[in-house]
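Posting for a labmate who doesn't have an account.
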Amino acid sequence: MVRRRAGGSCSVIGRWRAVGRGWPAAAAAVLMAMGLLTGCPTDGMTGGNDNGNANTNGNDNANSNSNSNTNDNGIGDPGCSDRDDDGFCDDLEINSTPGTDPLDPEDNPDNVKDADADGCSDFDETNFPGFCDNNPNTPPGTETPPITTPGGNVTVSGTILVGASSLVDGDTNDPTAAVVDNDGVGTGQSLPNPAVVGGFLGTTFEKVDSSDVYRVQMADGQTATLFLADPIANDFDLFLYDADGEPLDSSEGTGKAEVVMSPSNGTYLVEVFGYSVSNNGDPGGLYTLLIGENALGAGAAQAAREKLSSLHDYVEGEVVLKRRDAGDATRRAKLVGDHGLETIEDGSNSGGFERMRIRSIDRHAKIGGAAMVDRGGLRRPTSPTLNAIKSLRRAEGVENADPNYIRHVTREPNDEFFAFQWHYPLISLPAAWDVTTGSNDVIVAVVDTGVVLNHPDMLGQTVAGFDFISEASNALDGNGIDADANDPGDTALPGGRSTFHGTHVSGTVAARTNNTTGGAGVAWDARIMPIRVLGRLGGIDTDIAQGIRFAAGLTNSSGTLPPQRADVINMSLGGQGISTIEQAAITTARQAGVIVVVAAGNEQSNAQFFSPAGLDGVVTVSAVGPSRALAPYSNFGETIEVAAPGGDLSVDLNSDSFPDGVLSSVGDDGGGLFSLQQGTSMASPHVAGVVALMKAVNPGLTPDAFDQLLAGTHPGTTVRITDDLAPAGRDNSFGHGLINALSAVRAAEDIIGMATVDTPVLAIVPRSVDFGSSATSATIAATNGGVGSLNITGVSSDEPWLTVTPTSGGAGAFMATVNRTGLADGVYSGRLTFASNGGDAAVTVQVTVGDRTTSAGDVGTLYVLLVEETTFESAAQANLTAAGGYAFEMADVAPGNYFLFAGTDLDNDSFLGDEGEAFGGYPTVLDPVVLITNQNRTGLTFASTFEINIQTPGTSSVKTGAATPRPIVRRIAPTPR
């Protein structure tokens, strides 16, 4: 959460940011430029800011003799008045003799620097005489003075959390890491299962690395999934072999993702092969390899759409082609000539799909199976037809190019990323959808950064909103308040990247669902009213209050009202201090019948000291992770009303090879990205969406009635809408408990007499368990997500080594136990099936027998950086390895204000934060806080995880995909290649 900033004797208008968003380095500077710092000294210039590096505009208004001194020798300050010729334009100079100006204590003769040896004059620039930051971008009056402490320099220490399944390729381009060859059958790098591997292919400091081979035990149906960090510059393929190097599956497409599947339990070799490597001048490319139970989830449809495999059955030498410029005869002729094509069928009777022959390829070449290339003991399949199709897919004007399959690929599931949304079953949401998916008449206002309106999961999901950011320089859309609530990006993350925070929040509330792409939303058929109040620097109280009033259908600064007010307001934002103007707006909105849901904040602190989390009349939401424990970042306290899933990127408890964040939509230059994020910002929209479902079945639900339902005191029902996660009753971690979507909908019906039948619904948590190589038991919670008495009639196992007790009963805890005795080394999977009067449910189980290869994560060298707040330059660095437990200590750190980051540099480009690299920030990347190091700081702990951007099929192609975000922080002393 953002803190309200104060500038010494200067006053600052309260400014807020999204809970889970970053704070820019030079916030105070821009505040000054916008006039939001009042009572502070100013430079008095109209032609530019005199920041100690010389005034190039010469508009020294404080000096009546500006530009009149014929003896102005001005060292580096042409065009400004320098009466005493001391080399600096000081604004306050009176006398023309060097060293005689009584108003400037640093008035020096020519060629003599100022007294504090900063190389610039600063008397007119700062409240701290004798200090100049020598930064031309710092507006006058806003320089931060150096912090001094009696004890001098300080120590900063802590530990970086790395997931146990996170590993690194043995031969990356990082010279600090030992090189371990992994290029063939005999040298395949052993992996545990599940695993997340960060890797690199290309020209390393040592050799050309075009292939990485991994040896792993996989169960029947498990997948290996490859994500390319930059599919525009690189084309990597994925191959699956048996233990002897014979090919079993391949994925040779041109998109961001490739996926192969194990046919049975066994030991396999997985090869990442660089078909083409880097056309943008970089030495190579980064990738992330996932091994595990359904490692791509339902998103396998994405890779299946674009998957090419030499092992598939198709007509060699033929291609099915569709062009974007079908009517352009000249371009068609060029394409045909460049690629050696001839027409078999022109596409006039097939919707523009042309059947073409590749003249250079013998159409009978594939008889007897795919051709093989032996390399390192691997028999890699290859096909000239697929090579030609790869080239065509990248050609200008080509919409699609596929083999002429004799047998087609597998049918695609709906909502491809829903399998990653573990957070929905956690609150019994799928069962609630059997009752309602929401209503178009219910509107949820998302008061945030705005929404990327053309995102595939936002199309058709929004109503007209408003942009209340009053300062054009903060809005980044070229104007002040207006009716366009589209999010242009906020550049609020370090390095200038944007959060698209409001789009992620909105996707959780009401993403377009059941449309075969992207993810699902809580209330499919509800509508989002985007209210934009957060920009590059966050948002100010007055703008936020106006946004609340607009959403509630109350008079506001826009002079307009929405055609229909919102039923629910979600506010995933906040800051320290209690805001009177926000309290007034919320109170009035509540009186109008609007239920206001807010995020508790991510400071691991008491939420009552933050706004809006500590205000009256709001529903304050804390966050839980996948185990239903309070998330490590979540705020707590007496104002917490309810808990909801907020994610935990430091763990992967469901063994899908992804960190357990909340998956939802985000923005990007190409549109159509999805990402896993964590924070109470992600928890709050779960509750807002559930309220929207309740309003769909009970439009008259009031804020008071909802409060009573949360507390379990509503006279119209005995149904509790939360699951108690602590000793009975309300507590300061979870409030009244974890929101239960089905119970909430049932209760909303019940209080108006709609619910006539008590229907129990079985809910199981977790839905998958990984015992690893040592654990023998795990607890599975069975809960009643419905109404009435739940009776579990039986629990069965499909494997003799897997048992459960008890085997029947009601809601409660069940103990799953595995017995490895007699099992050969390998990875095994099983299933527990629960049967009940509330439906059936299954839990998938994975167990490893023998050495799991590693019991702790090893992502290679982690660089921990202290980054200066104002300049964003790295000031201190620690190089960590797994052998040291990724514990760090940076001694002799100069006191100051810093961000703290940790990441890998597998491609040795000296930057941290590339996609495909492990990266993290304290306490989170999206919500980095400024460390004020005027004393020793110890025990700083945060996660560093591999970053993967998930894209829809339409945006994952190399022709339409978004550009890869640039790195955000540079490490110290890059190692020469």
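Reply:
Got it, the structure tokens are right above this. Residues 773-849 form a domain with the Immunoglobulin-like fold (CATH 2.60.40.10).
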